[in-house]
Design a protein that fits this description.
The protein folds into two domains: about 240 residues, Type I PLP-dependent aspartate aminotransferase-like (Major domain) (Aspartate Aminotransferase, domain 2, 3-Layer(aba) Sandwich), CATH 3.40.640.10; about 80 residues, Alpha-Beta Complex (Aspartate Aminotransferase, domain 1). It has 13 helices and 15 strands. A seven-stranded mixed β-sheet has the order 4-10-9-8-7-5-6, sandwiched between helices. The longest helix has 17 residues. It is globular and about 60 Å long. The protein starts with 7 loop residues before the first helix and ends with a helix. About 45% of the residues are buried.
């Protein structure tokens, strides 16, 4: 990476964005042009090893031959975008059927546009059953930015300032079995009627915090005891990133309702059939399941992960990556390394140092992203190889060893 960043072509795009569009959460001056495998290329021909998979949305990397085959098949299809809750399509049925093979028994799916909308519809399913009561969510949670999902988000003040919210009660997201607040949910359910419990298993935007086994098992136990639906948000962790299809599988429990998106290519609210709303129009959306291309890619992605044993690869490569990163703990401001599979978080001593290191890694040809207040998140594509892990670790060791 000897070229000046951003290059001239990228700079033109960035200048145009800043002039005509909202300058949102862009981390560094990268303008994506193309990609191959686990490498992204920008408009000026600079190549970067990708340890973000676009926040998990590209689980089998870039230009994968199976995905290219799907895109080629649909390249001349003039009805690729339809009103997917008003008209049936083969792709919708096939994605639902394929997804069912990796879901708990007796689960059905409702497809929607995004992760936030998947959460919105998950909580609507619970409200439909329980009534308009408060929901319970965790400190540090991120469930989306639409107003319903945002009510239960609690990771950064900027997400919520001056926005209204639905009734919510909050508990600590416990990462240790011996946390003194591990049983807090029982006290809330004893004293209050609530509509649902909503949590991530690995907090995404909150910093890649991994829930303790006892915490998740307690939520399941007390939700069952009090007849409350347990909703697990797997928008970022789902479809293999933790080395299993779903992060909750590491905990030997099953939710009542769950959400997915990103790696699935579309949003999905998935639920036990006993919670299905009786009224057909209780859930709908013009574009829910409306992109035939995205649904076809989503179904193919699941098949590729099965065929190529990518869950096993994620577990192996994640173990190797985490072990390498743990050697950096305690040095140059790295205070913690945590994660499941290929979802790994590095905690820094200060936010300033975290931001500085993300920028330096970018200039060294490695893409990572921030999470939480002082964390750096790593979530490479499931196809990543040992050589690419070693390359990424080499870059990180060099960059994180500097002041």
């Amino acid at each position: 990476m000897n070229k000046k960043l951003p290059g001239p072509n990228s700079k033109k795009v960035i200048d145009k964005m800043r002039r005509y569009a909202y300058d949102s959460t862009f981390m560094y001056p990268l303008v994506i042009a193309n990609g191959q495998d686990c490498v992204i290329e920008d408009l000026d021909g600079n190549r970067f090893l990708d340890f973000t998979s676009n926040i998990g949305a590209c689980p089998i990397g870039y230009s994968h031959p199976d995905v290219i085959e799907v895109l080629t098949e649909y390249s001349t299809n003039g009805t690729h975008k339809i009103a997917g809750q008003d008209f049936y399509s083969k792709e919708h049925a096939e994605l639902a059927e394929t997804l069912s093979t990796i879901l708990p028994r007796n689960f059905k799916s409702f497809f929607i546009n995004s992760g936030a909308e998947a959460v919105e519809n998950a909580i609507k399913i619970a409200y439909r059953k329980m009534g308009p009561l408060p929901g319970v969510s965790c400190l540090g949670a991120f469930h989306g930015r639409t107003l319903g999902a945002l009510s239960f988000t609690f990771s950064k003040p900027v997400h919520k300032y001056n926005f209204p919210e639905l009734p919510v009660k909050r508990i600590k997201f416990c990462t240790r079995d011996d946390d003194p607040e591990i049983d807090a949910i029982e006290g809330i359910l004893k004293e209050n009627k609530v509509a649902f419990i909503l949590t991530e298993v690995v907090q995404g935007e909150g910093g890649y915090n991994v829930a303790s086994k006892k915490f998740i098992k307690n939520l399941r136990k007390f939700a069952t005891q009090y007849g409350i639906p347990l909703i697990l948000d797997e928008v970022q962790s789902g479809i293999g990133h933790t080395g299993r299809w779903w992060a909750f599988e590491h905990y030997d429990i099953t939710p009542d309702i769950m959400s997915a998106a990103k790696a699935l290519q579309v949003g999905a609210a998935m639920y036990n059939k006993r919670l299905e709303p009786a009224d057909r129009s209780a859930l709908s959306s013009t574009w829910g399941g409306g992109s035939r291309i995205d649904m076809a890619v989503g179904a193919r992605t699941i098949r590729v992960i099965k065929r190529d044993k990518l869950l096993e690869n994620a577990a192996r490569m994640g173990s190797m990556l985490k072990k390498g990163l743990e050697e950096l703990a305690g040095r140059k401001g790295v205070v913690d390394v945590r994660g499941l599979g290929l979802m790994i978080g590095l905690e820094f001593d200060t936010r300033v140092r975290r931001e500085k290191k993300i920028a330096e890694l970018f200039k060294s040809g490695l893409l990572v992203l921030g999470a939480g207040q002082k964390s750096l998140r790593i979530i490479p594509p499931l196809v990543i190889t040992r050589e690419q892990i070693e390359q990424g670790l080499s870059i990180m060791t060099q960059v994180l060893s500097r002041n």
